Fold:
Amino acid sequence: MLQVRDLECRRGDASLFSAMNFELGAGQLMHVKGSNGSGKTSLMRIVCGLFEPAAGVVTWRGENIRELRDEFNRELTYIGHLNGIKDELTAVENLTIYARFAGLGVDEPRIRDALHQMGLKGRADLPSKVLSQGQKRRVALARLLLGGTTLWILDEPFTALDVRAVNLLQTVITKHLGAGGMVMFTTHQDVEISAGAHCHINLDAWAS
Amino acid sequence: MGQLSLFGALRTVVARDITLAMRRRADVFTTLFFFIIAVTLFPLGVGPDPEMLRVIAPGVIWVAALLASMLALGRLFSADYQDGTLEQLLLAPHPLSLLVLGKVLTHWLLTGVPLVLLSPLLGMQLGMDVSAIGLLMLTLLLGTPVLSLLGSVGAALTLGVRGGGVLVSLLVLPLYIPVLIFGAGAVEAQTVSVEFDAYLYLLGAFLAVSIFLAPLAASAALRISVE
Amino acid sequence: MNLLLSFSSPKTFYPLAGKLLPWFAALALVLTAIGLYLGFFVAPSDYKQGESYRIIFVHVAAAWMSMFIYVVMAGWSAVGMIWNTKLSDMMAGALAPTGALFSFIALWTGALWGKPTWGTYWIWDARLTSELILLFLYIGYIALRSAIDDPRRAARASALLAIVGVINVPIIYFSVRWWNTLHQGASVSPTMAPKMAETMLWAMFVMAMAFWMYTIAVVLARVRSEILERERNTAWVAELVLESRK
Structure:
């Protein structure tokens, strides 16, 4: 469903990788590996459509994502290095706005339940600025629990999470893959994700 | 699925930004105080002769409104840029121009409209008569949204760039000049009993064109800046 | 079309530009000499303004060029945005300083003409004021481009700014003209468009051509040096350096 053809990524004047091809289908998990600066984040952002590649094309269900725009965005959840939550709003408010934009049709109890599962029960109504880094990350990741999208692109999702949260996230990803979803992620940590066909791509091997 | 209509998406953006602004009320007031102080500087600089002040009043108030509006641009996108909510807006399944329009609309409601409402006080302070003040308010009402719209393009281009605030001024002030000329010009025309309708029509035309084109340009600029 | 496309790669453009450069530079010198001769010596002195009006032919040529260059700059910016070509980005960036220079020359020569003619160095007429605003637009473009570190973002952001600017230039010019007529007093306002002898018009045209040749030469030189910098990590540049050391 997701296909990448002849992709080239340039940062500044250097080419990080070129002539990259891969495919990701339903139920598949792709682990992007590589040392710092090899282009992992750039690759993720190219697949999201945030960054324009120097060459090549990303297609979703056969069509160029640059032409699909909104239709592609509807099936995508991207969680990058930044959490994408407002400090002045509470966790519940942040997720409500996210859910509304994404057209998820979820109500407040469902949002609170998602936050509860991420271990934020007592903190759901505090302004997010009082949360710790790890807690803010969990608010961002709670979006995955609300579901509604097919392709998940996660950049270092396990960072700043404790063991319990890591296990929970692994379970959530496994369930998503089982339901036919797709996940593309990077991480420095060793993670155990049982279901889904795994593939990796190592950007160090791709350096041009 | 509760898919949002275009209007629903616009409403969500506006509601979000208003809520955020209400929790940081100080920002709104600083723009207003700048406006007041800037106008007050002129009599202090050029002398308090009432005749002269009345003549320069429309221009002075317009320039101060322009500068205040421009200073407020720093807040339009930069907070969202820094916490990652801006890139989430780019990835939302709604036309980015619409979301940008929503943000600019809210920005204008919180910075432009207060300037319009405060202008009569400053007009009186500079000795303008009532009909002139009325026309001044109308020109500001038509002109300040254009300032916010044009300014949003400059703000979007300079996201995260060092020297941001001053750089935005450099980019955006030349573009503001036509609005200033016709806004202040309308009021001056009225004081010398010249027909001023054409000025208002032109301001209206600027507004109509920029509501359509500025969000497109700002969206393109945001995509460039978020890369 | 393929020929054009092949010249759009920095690698092929570099030697081509190197060959063309001396010709344009030579043309610029020759035309400048002719233009200056025509303007300063051949054209008759004006019965009203004497000798001092001669600077006008430089002023008008510089003003034309400053506007022309802005449009070309916006054109290259648009090409770069639509077709994503690096070379067009470099062209746009290389034009800006020269455009700003001509803008500045136009203002300065305008002031030199103004002093003996109206008794003042500066006058708020429509053309001079628009020229000043054009200079601000150039400075804004250059400032934006140099403030952004990433070359790709800098090129794209300034391209968008140039395109927005070019749309606004006519609007700004029109507004400033209106503003000028609005504030016309009862007295006749001095204008920058005196009647000209035919030779003077020729001198202006020749100067404009000279400036254009100079612009092309300077842009070619700038783009060449930027190509070397941007492509410093490639094989062909390494070869070039080796060859030049022989």
User: Anything to note?
Assistant: The longest helix of chain C spans residues 10-42. Residues 24-43+50-245 of chain C form one domain. Chain C has one domain: 24-43+50-245. The two ends of chain C are 37 Å apart (CA to CA).
